Amino acid sequence: MGITRLTAKEIIDRMESLRNEEQRLQLMRFFKTGKGDYGEGDEFLGLKVPQTREVAKSVAQAFPLSEIPALLQSRWHEVRLCGFLILVAKFERLATKRLENNEEAIRGRDEILSMYLQYAEKANNWDLVDLSVPKILGHWLLLPTNLSPLPTSTHRGGDVKRQVLDELAQSPCLWKQRMSIVCTWKTSQMGDPSWCLRYAEIHLHHPHDLMHKAVGWMLREMGKRCSMDLLRDFLRQHAHEMPRTTLRYAIEKMPEQERQEWMSIPQDYEPAKKSKVNRFAGIPVPDFADMILKGDDEAMYYLLHNRINHQLQERYKAYQHHLYDSFEDIIDDFFLYLRESGRYPYESLKHIKNKESFESWLLNTFRNYLSNRSEAEGHVFSSQFPCEEKTLIADESISDEEKIHIVSQLIAYAHQVFYPRVRFIFLRSLLTILNKKRAVPNKEMAEALDMTSLSYRVAVYRMKQNLTMFRQRLLKEEKLRLDAEHINMVELINDDFEHLYPVLFRLYILCIDSLKTSTAVKNLRQQYLEERGFAVHELDSDSPILVRVSVFWEKLNRWIVT
Question: Rounded to two decimals, what is the model's pTM?
Answer without folding.
Answer: 0.52
